[in-house]
Specification:
By secondary structure, the chain is of the alpha/beta class. The protein folds into 4 domains: about 1-150 and about 335-375, Medium-chain alcohol dehydrogenases, catalytic domain (Quinone Oxidoreductase, Chain A, domain 1), CATH 3.90.180; about 155-290, NAD(P)-binding Rossmann-like Domain (Rossmann fold, 3-Layer(aba) Sandwich), CATH 3.40.50.720; about 380-515, NAD(P)-binding Rossmann-like Domain (Rossmann fold), CATH 3.40.50; about 515-675 and about 680-705, Dihydrodipicolinate Reductase, domain 2 (2-Layer Sandwich), CATH 3.30.360.10. The chain has 25 helices and 31 strands. Strands 25-26-27-24-28-29-30-31 form an 8-stranded mixed beta sheet. Helix 10 (about 250-260) links the parallel strand 12 and strand 13. Helix 4 (about 80-90) packs across helix 15 and helix 6 packs across helix 13 (about 320-330). It starts with a strand and ends with a helix.
């Protein structure tokens, strides 16, 4: 199928039309054959206009990110640094978020939508087919055209702005900015019985709003905004001001305050530069608020992916209910959309459409892209790549999951090692696989990982998907007779651990987990100083506190930081201790649904069969200037210290300052094992899985402690 994408290195305003495999849906998704998608001119043009310099400036504003960039430049090898920069610049990025079409496949957990239904979707890009989550999909009545339904995401954004302003019948509401979002806001306000003042520097947009019913309007280029609003409202000011503009003009935010009555509200829906004056806020006791996307649920991964619902009685207007309400308002003809449509272009004319927006040549405020579903686009789950790998007599690899880490490390390293050949890449949306296939030779890309498992030419499967899918895919791979390299965590619970162990043993394949730190050159040197047991091992991890919405904190997909990341640290301690863990104790700072601190701050102690003790201190209470990972070994009157796998000390004397995390070394080790036919023994499998066993025991211990 065809999809519109962008790249950072493309010149400003440029888009690309790429051939991408059709998406495969999950249980909470709907596959939609697209008829129309709406170009959100402000958001999307701003997105494709960003160049590498602008992106770098945004990144370096964060002290943690500055430290990460510094570590990247000075900590990794030249090859690793080059690979990461190249991959980020050439990554194909989806954009677009509003459209409508026909449901052609429905996940088993989706209610109220059947194959063949007209639907509108949010949060998916401009493509011939999209896989949207159920909470972003609304059924469209027969009386509503799909052309109009394609507006529903932007409509819901406007509606949420009204809800944040708590609009009442008869109130004066000023709308600052009359682009697409502003026009829809005006129409919704008029439908709600408000008295509306439209403000824009473009006379044609004011005329458009007037044709939709706007009676009061101001052009700041010729009128004094503050005086004009006061005159219209008999000196009182607007009850609320909703800012829909996208601008770097600092006067907009300050004018919004000055035109709003005492104890009124200012709601920011658009994006404007804010250098706020304190006095107007103080004197008027104004409420300032921001409206986020389409309503409650936005950016909550669990809600957006359909795993939870917000109770109707407590969260009356979720993002899905706002989306559905827009469709109802369109059906009841409370919103007039035809005057907003400037033009409709085919997918192949997308660049012309974006150029028209950029040049300001639109006669109205909205452009739609139209697809040709009547030609019945055939679902194609894989695409053969022209730049096929030419390596011979090698281990053929199928990569399942092409996230950032895999793109930046595993794929370049597999390509660099002569004994491996990347035969296939599988990613859920297809875009990441297509991005990497442009940089590295592969035979085909797919959105269905089962094609890799069924491919008789593939010897090794590298699994790097979301955490909750690792074990199941690995079990399927073992049953398919494929050798396995799986990223951490290997399993999410004890049942998966036993099932995977049995599948590996029953099928006689080689198994390896992505615990790379034991393969680091510094770790290999450090273990030479461990000459006496028992030892005391202390591992300190200083990390950044992630947003509560980060997918790794989700109990279903990510499992939390302890399960999601700590296997690395336990495996390295296992490597140094060289003994079986037999007992685990764990404590953490408090955590619950409202306070995630404990998920980032815990201490784990492990007792080993040879009486050694390992300790992990994992915390977000440090800062970006402190090393991320520090390993200390106390043994035989020696103190061995590793700092961020860049420096090695023995009794406070530096022994080595060149290191690396062991990413390429672990794959080189794997290649030798496969080439020699030296596959996993039961002892090795137990040793690998013991890191996950420690994670699960620690979680079990914490749950008891919490009770």
């Amino acid at each position: 199928m065809k999809q519109i994408v962008r790249r950072v290195i493309d010149s400003k305003g440029k888009v690309k039309i790429e051939e991408i495999p059709s998406p495969v849906i999950g249980d909470n998704q709907v596959l939609i054959s697209n008829h129309f998608s709406l170009i959100s001119s402000g958001t999307e043009l701003g997105t494709i206009n960003k160049d590498p310099i602008e992106m770098a400036k945004l990144t370096l504003q964060d002290p943690w990110m500055r430290n990460e960039v510094k570590s990247l430049i000075f900590g990794g090898s030249i090859n690793e640094t080059t690979d990461i920069i190249k991959n980020e610049l050439f990554l194909l990025r989806m954009f677009g978020y509003s459209g409508a079409g026909i449901a052609i496949e429905v996940g088993k957990n989706v209610k109220g939508i059947d194959i063949g239904d007209k639907v509108a979707y949010a949060a998916q890009g401009h493509a011939e087919q999209v896989a949207a989550y159920a909470n972003h999909v609304v059924k469209v009545p027969d009386s509503v055209s799909l052309k109009h339904a394609a507006f529903f995401t932007v409509g819901a954004i406007a509606l949420q702005g009204l809800r944040r302003a708590d609009v009442k019948i008869g109130e004066w509401i000023a709308v600052y900015g009359l682009g697409l979002l502003g026009q829809l806001t005006v129409e919704l306000l008029l439908a709600a019985g408000a008295r509306v003042i439209g403000i824009d520097i473009n006379d044609s947009k004011i005329e458009l709003a007037k044709s939709l019913g706007l009676k009061h309007y101001i052009n700041p280029t010729g009128d004094n905004v503050i005086d004009s609003v006061m005159k219209i409202t008999d000196g009182k000011g607007a009850d609320s001001t909703i800012v829909c503009a996208v601008s770097s003009d600092t006067t907009i935010a300050n004018n919004a305050m000055k035109i709003t009555r005492k104890q009124g509200k200012v709601v920011f829906v658009g994006i404007v530069k804010m250098e706020l004056e304190r006095k107007p806020f103080f004197e008027r006791e104004l409420d300032l608020s921001f409206s986020r996307a389409y309503g409650p649920g936005s950016y909550d991964d669990a809600y957006e992916k359909g795993r939870i619902e917000y109770p109707y009685n407590y969260v009356r207007w979720t993002e899905k209910r706002n989306l559905a309400e827009i469709i109802r308002l369109i059906e009841d003809k409370k919103i007039n959309l035809d005057p907003l449509i400037d033009s409709i272009y085919s997918l192949n004319e997308a660049q012309y459409a974006f150029d028209k927006i950029k040049k300001g040549e639109m006669n109205s405020v909205a452009i739609l892209l139209q697809y040709k579903p009547e030609e019945e686009i055939k679902r194609k789950l894989n695409i053969v790549i022209k730049n096929k790998s030419t390596k011979k007599n090698v281990i053929n690899v199928g990569v399942i999951g092409v996230g950032n880490f895999t793109r930046n490390y595993h794929i370049p390293n597999l390509n660099r090692i002569n004994g491996f050949k990347i035969r296939s890449l599988a990613s859920a949306s297809g875009i990441n696989a297509a991005s990497s296939a442009k940089l590295y030779p592969v035979d085909y890309i797919t959105t269905d990982y089962k094609e890799i498992l069924q491919d008789p030419e593939i010897d090794l499967v590298l699994i790097a998907t979301r955490h909750n899918t690792h074990a199941q895919i690995a079990i399927e791979a073992a049953k398919s007779g494929k050798h396995i390299f799986v990223e951490k965590p290997v399993v999410m619970n004890f049942d998966e651990l036993e099932s995977l162990k049995n599948a590996i043993m029953e099928n006689g394949i080689h198994f390896m987990a992505g615990y790379n730190r034991r393969f680091s050159p510094i770790s290999k040197k450090a273990i030479k100083f461990v000459t006496q047991y028992p030892i005391m091992a202390r591992y300190t991890v200083n990390i950044q506190h992630l947003p509560d919405s980060h997918w790794t904190l989700d109990s279903i997909e990510g499992g939390g930081r302890l399960l999601g990341e700590s296997g690395h640290f336990f495996d390295l301690m296992n490597f140094f201790v060289n003994s079986k863990p037999i007992e685990v104790q764990a404590v953490s700072l408090p955590f619950d649904e409202d306070n995630k601190t404990g998920l980032f701050n815990f201490a784990i102690q492990i007792k080993y069969e040879n009486n050694s003790i390992g300790q992990l201190l994992y915390t977000s209470l440090g800062g970006p200037k402190i090393p991320r990972e520090t390993v200390e070994l106390f043994c035989g009157n020696n103190h061995v210290k590793i700092s961020d796998f860049k420096k090695l000390y023995l009794n406070n004397r530096k022994k080595q300052s060149k290191g690396g995390m062991g990413h390429i070394q672990e794959l080189e080790y794997l290649l030798k094992r496969l080439q020699n036919g030296n596959y996993s023994t039961a002892g090795e499998i137990n040793n690998i899985l013991s890191a996950d066993w420690i994670c699960l025991k620690a979680i079990e211990n914490l749950n008891k402690f919490a009770k």
